Amino acid sequence: MTELKSGSNLEKVLKAGHFAFTGECGPPKGANVEHLREKIAHLKGVVDAVNVTDNQTAVVRMSSWAASTIMLQEGVEPNFQMVCRDRNRLAIMSDILGVSAMGIRNMLCLSGDHQRFGNHPQAKNVYDIDSMQLISLVRKMRDQGLFENDEEIDVPPRLFVGAAANPFAEPHEFRVYRLAKKIAAGADFIQTQCIYNMDRFRNFMKQAVDMGLHEKCYILAGVTPMKSVGMAKYMAKMVPGMDVPDALIQRLQGAGKGQVAEEGIRFALEQIEEFKEMEGVAGVHLMAIEWEHKVPEIAERAGVLPRPQV
Amino acid sequence: MIVADRKPLAEILDMIKDMDKILIIGCKGCVTVCNVGGAKEVGILASVLKIARKKDGRPLHVDERTLERQCDPEYIEQVKDVVDEYDGVISMACGVGPQFLSQAYPNQRFFPAVNTTFYGGAVQHGIWEERCAGCGQCVIHYFGGMCPIARCSKSLLNGPCGGSAGGKCEISKDVDCIWDMIVRKKMAEGRLEDLMDVKPAKSWDTARDGGPRRAVREELVQ
């Protein structure tokens, strides 16, 4: 990992050995640019890059590439998310070239939630390629300068290639191998699913470190502060592949009226402290869902400010 | 086989609302095996249509036939003497049947009584499941004899995705995660390395994506 692959801020921060801190921002359900700029403003200067979600939970929103370009205008580095659900390989490759042309330098490759979850369950699901194939496609375009069909690209895209890992989905035994596979496919960095079960995550990271995966790729631990007991229960029961231990729910319940959100933040801060020391963890990906305004406070209290200038 | 479900009665009644005399044609192929469009189901549909129309004060004359198959001109021909005697004809075959009938008898109107759903088989009496997507390039031998194209909700060739929990798919607790089954089988066999190579992007040109398909066996073509 010597030469810069994309020149993104996130890449530079990680390569310089800093503990990375990334955020997340969902585009609006509409063309409400002002609202988007407002959300972006909360994140400016407090994170290294911001994931811009792509029709997350299969609900139609402003396109992730458009919101990413608005983010660039605001002086915040986007991590452009792309799911395989909505585009075939033609659209995928043209969007990759498009975002690179617009100056976007990070891209996160995802399968995407099935459209059955979303607000247009009648939609056709594309899945021409899967997230693994998307990772290798972006790498091929960037490093070999070739399209999927091996035709040459006139100026290849420059992107720092990210992928997701969910240590809590099943079969558990296979998850670290799937991570290895994504790294072999070409992932430069990994952002994990929200972590609540620390025991299981410690075990997952130990396996990853034993396999030397942390030396081939930067692994960012996913953190989402719980805002309420209801949110914790919803995530525990309704979100597939999410592992919320009962002990955490009880802890939030015990926080008392008006104190649950603060307790949720405290738990997140404890997690971040542990991740700073955990072998193989190169940073934290903070997904403060519809809570962007809380990110500066969390970053401050987590002791990750100021962000490194590289 | 091809699996189908019968359309709701109201939809079928609406198709024939202006008619007084109809023919229902069943098929002894797949739809007989999946208990939706064979002679027995033709009889049941005929009875319920007659009852419904009688109740409505507009009695309906219904005749019944069941052909060996509706995907072969030689059997389609067997109704040539009677087919034009009706105001309309209902086919209880898969989507192929009413199309073959429509082409053979352009002066008659044919209506599908079933919704063709998938290629699959019976997993227990009365329950059928999808097994094949007809993609034109079979790959099940890479995946422990299971097809992720037909059986994974996202057709992932490099699964399982992050939504796999308790052996079930993220879309529903009623849907098995086929990737969970593939991985567990490979682990039990000690052949996990089979899944470690990134399966490349699939060519869909042999699937429906490449346009309507045609199979030609030269040795049989006269």
Q: Mind explaining what this structure looks like?
A:
The complex is a heterodimer of chains A (310) and B (222). By secondary structure, chain A is an alpha/beta fold. Chain A contains eleven helices and eight strands. Chain A has one domain: TIM Barrel. Chain A has an eight-stranded parallel barrel with strand order 1-2-3-4-5-6-7-8, surrounded by six helices. In chain A, β6 (189-194), α7 (198-210) and β7 (218-223) form a beta-alpha-beta unit. In chain A, α6 (172-185) crosses α7 (198-210). The two termini of chain A are 16 Å apart. Chain B has seven helices and nine strands, in the order βαβααβαβαβββαββα. Chain B has a four-stranded parallel sheet with strand order 3-2-4-5, with helices on both faces. A three-stranded antiparallel sheet of chain B has the order 1-6-7. Chain B is an alpha/beta fold and 222 residues long. Chain B has two domains: 2-117, Rossmann fold (3-Layer(aba) Sandwich); 133-199, no CATH class. In chain B, α5 links the parallel β4 and β5. The A-B interface holds A 84-85, 89, 111-114, 116-117, 125, 127-133, 136-137, 148, 164-166, 169-171, 173-174, 177-178, 180-181, 184-185, 193, 240-241 and B 153-168, 170-172, 177, 180, 183-184, 187, 192, 195-196, 198-202, 204.
